[in-house]
Structures are given as structure tokens and as C-alpha cells.
Amino acid sequence: QAKVAGKNCYRFYSRAMDQAVERRVHLEHELRGAWDRGELSLVYQPVYRLGDGAMVGAEALLRWRHPEQGLVAPSVFIDVAEQSGLIETLGPQVLRAACQDAVRWQHVRPAASEPLFVSVNVSPRQLRSGDLPNVVAACLHDTGLAAHNLHLELTETAVIGDEIHASNLLARLRSTGVKVWLDDFGTGFSGLSHLRRVPVDGVKIDRSFIADVLRDPDDLALTTAIIAMAHSLGITVVAEGVEKEGQYAVLRERGCDLAQGYWLGHPVGADEFMTLLG
Ligand code: C2E
Ligand code: MG
Ligand code: MG
Ligand code: MG
């Protein structure tokens, strides 16, 4: 009996696995032409300065509207793009579009206001390809966006492994004026040691810390410690996933520099973001 059930179980799982693999291959195939078919677009989530509440920039987030499946989560398709190597064409397209949009923002803002930055996520594979400084330079040159208005967000996984290569690349990028942020900070085990070797301008505290900052004294202690540590190294701190006024208040009180989250503003399409500015 048990043996039969076991065998069925095995079959069931292997079928489920086959289906998962099949779905990935399918997605990869469809993702290949998605940009040219206009199915991919960027949304922008505003970033605010906690000190005076001013909007200072926005993070570009990629969306895929699949003709049959509707919105596919970035956690799914970015991974497909990364594994398949598609990110090496998609990444530069995203970067260029984000720079173009950021140039448009400066035109609708009053002349006296400080320019907004655009923050673009860069995947591990893009960093490893080594071509990133050239791609970035070309985008800035062609769009006319000032280097200091472009921020690149990297995760710890992007710098793990080859830290010498990563820190050389980041140093090259930063020497042109582009800012580099470490995304999802605090989720890896070696965040602190990376900061010693990898030069960055700022860290984004992962939203899992922010989620419980009002209820869990440990999360508050860690968040406060990250802020203090970053400031002692002279780098900026961004909190992500601010969903409540209370979280905003406590982050502000602890001296966090910047914040983003649903309470402050959801990601919106490029046109809607322009309206928000105008
Ligand atoms: P991330 O860079 O950490 O982006 C923040 C994610 O948190 C976004 O999810 C955003 O929509 C979501 N978020 C913002 N505020 C809140 C909040 O208050 N509460 C909650 N629960 N979530 C909030 P999204 O857009 O689904 O993106 C997921 C991840 O996919 C991103 O995480 C990033 O790692 C990756 N990604 C998105 N666009 C790109 C891209 O153009 N290139 C690359 N390489 N990765 C991207
Ligand atoms: Mg990010
Ligand atoms: Mg993040
Ligand atoms: Mg994340």
C-alpha cells in the first residue's frame, strides 16, 4: 500500500516539476520578444526625504503584461531573464528607458527645484558581464541625464563571489558620478563585511525589517543599528516598504534619510508619474 502511494507521490511530484520547467521554458520564449511587442513597461515609485518630506527621486520597476496571463510578477520573470541571459539585452533597454523618463521629469519640474534621481535595479548577471560601465555611459550620453541623477541598485548576491571584480566595477561607475545602492540590505548574512570591501553610496533597508519595526523591538534595534552604522561610514540610508504613518515617524525619528512604500506612494506608470509631478 505504502509503496504504491509512494510511487504515485513520486509521479505526482515529477509531473509537477516537469510542468514547472515547461512553464519556465515557455515564459522564456515569450519574454524574448516582449519588449518589442510593447508588453514590458516601467512603473515608478516615488522616494521621499524624511527630513522635509520632499520627493527626491523614484525607483523604476519593470512590469510585464502578458497577453493571456495578465501581469507576471517580477520575482518570476526577472529570474527567468537572469537564468536565460535575456537580462543582458533587457537590462540595457530598461536602463535607457528609465534615463529617458528621468530627463522628461526634469522638464516638467520648476527650474528652481532640485532634479529627481531615477533608481534602476541591476541584476547580478548584468554586473558580472563587465559591460555595465559602457552601457551606463552610453545611456547617459544619449539621453543627456546627469550621472548623479542615476542610481543603480544592486543586491548582495550580485557582489558575492567576486568582490574584487565587483568593487572595481563599482568604483569605475562611481567615478563617473553615478550612485550605487545596496538593495534589500540586511537580508544576507554578510552585509557588514561587504560594506568594508564594496564601495557604495547607500543601503536600502529591506522591507522585512520595516514591516515589524513598530511591534518587534529586535527589528527596531536592527534598523536603528543599520542607520547608525551607515551614517558612521558616510553613506545614505533608504527604508523600503513603509506602509504606515507610524513606521514613517519612527524612521524619521531614528534619522533615516529616505523612504519609499505604499503609504508614501505606489508605483505608477510613466505618464501618471509625470502628472504627479506637474
Ligand atoms: P526591489 O528592488 O526590492 O523593489 C521593491 C519591491 O517592493 C517592488 O516590488 C515594489 O513594488 C515593492 N514595494 C514597494 N513599496 C512597498 C510596500 O510598501 N509594501 C510592500 N509589500 N511592497 C512594496 P516589485 O515591483 O514586485 O519588484 C520585485 C523585485 O523585482 C524588485 O525588488 C527587484 O529586485 C526586481 N526588479 C523589478 N524591476 C526590475 C528591473 O527592471 N531589473 C531588475 N534587475 N530587477 C527588477
Ligand atoms: Mg530595488
Ligand atoms: Mg529592495
Ligand atoms: Mg526585494
Strand order across the largest sheet: 1-2-4-5-6-7-8-9
Distinct small molecules: ligand C2E, magnesium ion
Number of helices: 12
For the record, give the distance between the C-alpha atoms at the N and C termini, rounded to a whole number.
70 Å
Largest sheet: 8 strands, mixed, barrel
The protein's oligomeric status is single chain
Structural class: alpha/beta
Overall 3D shape? globular
Q: Roughly what is the average pLDDT, rounded to an integer?
A: 91
Which radius of gyration do the C-alpha atoms yield? 20 Å
Order of helices and strands: HEEEHHEHHEHHEHEHHEHEEH
Which segments are poorly predicted (pLDDT under 50) over 5 or more consecutive residues? none
- Report the β-strand fraction as a percent range: 15-25%
- Count the E strands: 10
Write up this protein.
The chain is of the alpha/beta class. It is 51% helix and 20% strand. The protein has helices spanning 2-32, 74-84, 87-108, 124-128, 132-143, 156-159, 163-175, 191-197, 207-211, 217-232, 245-253, 270-277; strands spanning 40-49, 55-66, 70-72, 117-121, 150-155, 179-185, 202-205, 236-239, 258-259, 268-269. Strands 1-2-4-5-6-7-8-9 form an eight-stranded mixed beta barrel. A hairpin with a 5-residue loop joins strand 1 and strand 2 (55-66). The longest helix has 31 residues, at 2-32. It is globular. The mean pLDDT is 91. Ligand C2E binds next to strand 2, helix 2 and strand 6.
